[in-house]
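Explain this record to help learners:
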Amino acid sequence: MTANVSFLDQLFNQGILYDSGVDGIYGRSADFEDVISRFEDLALSLGKDEISEAMVFPPGMPMTDFETSGYMKNFPQLAGTVHAFCGSDHDHMGLIQCMAAGEDWTENQKKTDLALTPAACYPLYPILAKRGPLPESGAYVALQSYCFRHEPSKEPTRMQMFRQREYVRVGTEEQTTAFRETWKQRGQEMMDLLELPHHVEVANDPFFGRAGRMLGSSQREQELKFELVIPVNEGASPTACMSFNYHMDNFGKAWNIQQADGSPAHTACVGFGLERLALALFRHHGFDVKAWPAGVRKSLWG
């Protein structure tokens, strides 16, 4: 790492990311996107014989499903909603005048029925619920989505718009907990292939408010969420780049997802932070992908 030049500035200087002027919103280079694509191929190769289907979601989701997720109970400061102009022609003229004068023009921006997706798996659950009771084998879905979290930061790993690649397992307690344990092991094996320093730890999420802190304490005690962390940002704690989550039957109850016997389904997911993993690779192997270690290149490019 070059002295006195932050990792983010190096990414800008090397043309890996492009500065938009807003922290956490960046353009991405062809090399950056290629690394993400190659990593996704690697991740999908490990579960391709297990999935029942695959889906890709847009960065927005219905407001009703967002509310059902319970996200606002814990992270209201991170959430984003979609607003749009709902005024008259007269209001439109006033909006243009306000913009020209550099004044606030948002008076007639009203909320729509959309929220920005905070976690990639949320749009999946209402889809499964509408299908009725799951088969005995449950569901095993590979998905990807852009996500939003309002936490502007100079740390390049803390983007406001980012992608998550996930595997989601829905079914019995035994099916979902076995899935999570399998992917905890696979995740570490993947990081070994990519020659990235890492370790897995019980998650310590910064839950918001007193109720959230109590929930977070319970979560840690029950070991419901683990994270695979990698040192990326200089002078900061290692970054969570993968997560392994067991939700018990909370989402099954929230969305009325039923097992074959009619009882609430259990859910678990493994999430890959695609931008974070790409940044970890550039951080540890350099900005020239052609000079990366031979083993890493073989794992990603074959």
About this structure: The two ends are 28 Å apart (CA to CA). Residues 272 and 301 are 19 Å apart (CA to CA). Residues 7-80+118-301 form a domain with the BirA Bifunctional Protein; domain 2 fold (CATH 3.30.930.10).
